[in-house]
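In practice, a research group might receive sequence data for several interacting partners and want a quick structural hypothesis before committing to experiments. The following worked case mirrors that situation: the sequences arrive first, and a predicted assembly follows.
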Amino acid sequence: MLDTWLQALQDSALPTAIREGDRLFPWIEGVHVLALSLVVGSIAIVDMRLIGMASRERSVRQTTAATLPVTWCAFALAAISGGLLFSSNATTYAHNVFFQIKLLLIAAAGLNMLSFHLLLGRGAQTWLTVADTPLRGRVVGALSLGLWILVVACGRWIGFTLNAVT
Amino acid sequence: MTLRALDPFCTWLAATSLSQAIQTAEWIIPAVQTVHILCVASVMSSVLMIDLRLLGIGARGQTLESVASRFLPFVWWPLPLLLVTGATLIVAEPARSLENSVFVLKMALLLGAVAVTLVFSLPLARDASFWELTAGRRWSARVLASVSLPLWAAIVFAGRWIAYTQVS
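A structural hypothesis for the assembly, expressed as tokens:
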């Protein structure tokens, strides 16, 4: 059922053009690497602030205000470019274990971020100060940093476990 | 290009025991590429935060000096690690990069991007308000930011294109 749908997806016009053209795939991949570098980097800025490794002279709220717009724009770009790369070989990617793990890790990172925002609502004053964050903030930050590093690793491992150009 | 002249060197390097060891262990190249991309993430995001401030789009409530001092270390310190991981990838597959004109272009763009970053950061280190003193300097700082972003982005694209422009 899913495979039928994925097959239809990769047989449609744009995915076929990406798969069969010489230039489209590398260009989209370039956009994907650029976008993901900004997603991971901008999230790392917040994570390192939460952990207390950087930007300690600024509050968590100030840090997220500066980086979140970058994170969301870059994430949209990474999701669109990643979706296009996926569509060009949907059936192969869907069965790749590193691709599956990567999606799960992104979902986990999203849930982790959601829990952070819920915490943020709960103790608003805490995140407006420049003091060290409470333990739960540091845990969320460390978890986020670790998850995104694994997402990047999985992404790279996908390239080495397909019969495609790496 | 006469990059083919590097053939003997590439052949010798690929035959060294270090290169052979990297080629044999399948996990080393993706692991090194992962570290390389994480360093790229640090550089690109930090450059973007500084450039957004220079262009007046982001962080307008902060001085340029405070934004720069917060993010410049995250531009500079990954660079040695990028060189080491990049060099490891070259040792593993010398001809893939060294005989590839896109790699040469990438290195030229890198020198340009580092030069632009130095032109911005060195005067700022001497005088925190350097880029804000005159209208001309404010304008120059914006030009630097608009040059810096596409330059760093082009390095990322060139890096990915190395995989698709192999000399056979």
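Before designing any experiment, note the following. The mean pLDDT of chain B is 92. Chain B has nine helices and no strands.
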